[in-house]
Amino acid sequence: MNTLAALRSALRALASNKLRSMLTMLGIIIGVGAVITMIAVGQGATNRVQEQLKGLGSNVMMVFPGGVTAGGVRLGAQTGQSLTEEDALAIAKDVPEVQVAAPSMRTGAQLVFGNTNWSSSIFGTTNDYMEARDWALSSGRLFEGAEIQGSAKVAIIGTTVAAQLFGDADPVDQIIRVKKVPVTVIGVLASKGQNSLGQDQDDVVIVPISTYRNRIQGGSPGKLKRIGSISIKVKEGQSMKVAEENIKELLRQRFKVQPGGDDPFSVRNLTEMLQAQEASSRIMTLLLAAVAGISLIIGGIGIMNIMLVSVTERTREIGLRMAVGARGKDILAQFLIEAVTLSIIGGAIGVGIGAIATWAVGHFAGWQVSMTAASIFLAVGFSAFVGVFFGFYPARRASKLLPIQALRYE
Q: Where does the pLDDT of residue 177 fall: very low under 50, low under 70, confident under 90, or very high at 90 and above?
């Protein structure tokens, strides 16, 4: 019996017991659909973290002011504004692993252009901030040295601000008001999207840090050099851990921290945090796929059970085939093809159900999902393997029947 004839025979046998065949395939259908959906959900989470890593920039860490103690009570992080611009300059100069260190200050403010207004985040920083974040410009230019030193009324805006204030018009060289201070837009940042907290990174206005201090924030002269954070980019190929330790050691010396004392600052390795999150997402994807794969195993057990029943029911048929010249390998191939056909048909239906479930999760739950061809081939290939593995024993049992005993079977 050739393969095509065996396939036709297998389909006829399955069609003769449609309900039993469908119930047998149910485990495979559920297993394949679950594997595809779980991998899509896990891959979507991984892709989301990778987008955040790309948006954050490579080899990035942040330095924030530490907490303070008031009346014996330790307050939270960033309650003590102890960092200065000089600290950022010292980090960039004295820590060999650091490429740039950008001081920055931040506040919220209302923006006005003509009859349009929008509330956004205002950053006071330097050009090093864009380099640290790998943040390119879509149009315009960066700050000039004289503008940073002279508190020039210029700004670089994000794409969200550009869309809200200017629509489709070109924002460059237009004047907007930030806290009633007129500033000229000299550049527009490329889109970064949302960060890991769901905040829109493109909803931002960046001005020179001197402009922020002297024109937007104001304040007493004693606080002019205080900053809110330092954005640091470590050189490519350098150890983030070594850079972090060197930064901490330098700041301890500058703040004259005694051995065993609390650091008046905190250093956060944002890249490693997101990389750890990405690794967790990958592990979770594998775990979800493994749990879903259990359904495929259960479906395979169901196939083996039904094929054993089928061998028993068709013992006389097997004996008759052997009596007219069928060989053991022909009987083996026939029943093995039936088992594999059950698995492949169930896998194909499972792919359709998995695609629908993946769409539903993305559409109704709002999760980011990613259904790939690799996950489909993996699920269908595994289901075919299950058919071969669990169908082999019943098929071999059928092929070992003796024609005389099979013909006498009642």
A: very high
Cβ(143)–Cβ(129) under 8 Å?
no
Phi/psi-derived region of residue 95, left when phi > 0, alpha when psi is between -120 and 50, beta in every other case: beta
SS3 of residue 350 by DSSP: helix
Q: How far is CA 247 from the centre of its chain?
A: 30
Same domain, 341 and 250: no
Give yes or no: residues 141 and 255 share one domain.
Answer: yes
- CA 86 to CA 366: how far, in whole Å? 45
**Which of 111, 114, 216 is CA-nearest to residue 158?**
111
Residues 280 and 320 in one domain: yes
Domain total of the chain: 2
Tell me: the pLDDT tens digits for 294-313? 877 888 888 888 888 877 77
pLDDT in tens, 64-81: 997 544 444 444 444 455
Where helices occur in 117-180 by DSSP H, the ranges are: 127-132, 145-149, 159-166
165 and 206 assigned to the same domain: yes
327-343 core/surface letters (b: 16 or more CB in 10 A; e: else): eeebbbbbbbbbbbbbb
Across the chain, what does the average pLDDT equal?
82
Last residue of a domain, one of 263, 292, 326: 263
Taking the whole predicted model, whether its pTM rises above 0.70 is answered as no
